[in-house]
What does this fold into?
Amino acid sequence: MKAMILAAGMGTRLGDICKDTPKVLLDINGLTVLERILTKLSGHGFNDIVINVHHLAARIIDAVNELQERIDVKISISDETDELLETGGGLYRVKDFFGNKPFLVYNGDILTDLDLGKMIDYHMRKKALATVAVRHREGNRAFLVDDNGIIRGWTNRKSGVDIITIEQEMNLSEIPSMAISVYDPGIFDYMEEGKYTMTSIVLKATATGRVIAFRHDRGYWVDIGTPEQLEKARKLL
It folds into this structure.
């Protein structure tokens, strides 16, 4: 199976910690974040992986070359050194990589015990266009999910801005994303070249009724995007 790791971020919230070290190469108790993610993906059957890079790209490429000798996966690089394309534009650039089967997109700053095999099985059983892993947690932004697990919109809790993509009234729950998604290749019909987020594409695709949530409220999930969260991950693991 194929997957993409989004590793092009600047690590701005981490400040000087990422000045000389890309976020995916930060050490978590003797293993880099990237090695932990690759090992997880490999263990769930994802053996053909593309990674986009921008900040300190050469260091990530060197690490990938070394890791491929120890982890049984094939890794390709999408180099965004000249222009950071955000999550949507970065994914669209490598659309030909994925072929005609569902694939996984995994943010390179996430550590979790989410069962990726169950998630992709759920995606295929529901014949979804997009399946977004979600979790009740703190966060300013959240998807709006109906009682059947279908994503119907998005909210910014801090600003009070809601984007609801269905006209009829229904009960909607606010559940933040875990920054891990499974997509059917049909998602590319809603995309084009450019610089934009996948959230905007997911919201556009909700009109189909085939954009669904995969709940993971148990176990652990940590975003290492801040110094505090980085230390939390080290203690947790």
Notes: Residues 2-236 form a domain with the Spore Coat Polysaccharide Biosynthesis Protein SpsA; Chain A fold (CATH 3.90.550.10).
